[in-house]
Amino acid sequence: VKVKDLMKNITQLTKDLRSSIHISDETIHSILEANISHSKILSSALAMALSGKCDQEILHLLLTFPEDETSLFAMKELCGLPGSKAYPLIVVMSQNLNLRTFINK
Fold first, then answer.
1. Residue 28 pLDDT > 90
2. Neighbours of 28 (CB within 10 A)
3. Is residue 52 pLDDT above 80, yes or no?
4. Any idea of the CA torsion for 8, 16, 85, 67, to the nearest 10 degrees?
């Protein structure tokens, strides 16, 4: 399932990410186009948090990005976020999550 298919309002999410996190449009697009396994999301998020590092392998536990140059840039940008920006990113994504769709997919 693509991340964008689990969100309530892509336009609002994009606007919120631009204004609060200040990540590039390319990274936002890559996140929305990434695939996510909702059955593994909690264990993957926990594994990421406990690992204390961020790289392509760790991000792949949570999101499967398309294999392209933009996705590599997005992974670098996401891993470069300080904790003070990573937390709001998670909050904004969670606030825009369509729970009904998430549960049914």
1. yes
2. 20
3. no
4. 60
The pair of structure tokens assigned to 69 is 């140059």
Does the pLDDT at position 53 exceed 90? Answer: no
This prediction has a pTM of 0.83
CA dist., res. 41 & res. 99, Å (int):
13
Query: DSSP readout, the chain?
Result: -BGGGGBS-HHHHHHHHHHHT---HHHHHHHHHSB--TTTHHHHHHHHHHH---SHHHHHHH-B--SSHHHHHHHHHHHT--HHHHHHHHHHHHHTB-HHHHHH-
6: confidence class by pLDDT, cuts 50, 70, 90: very high
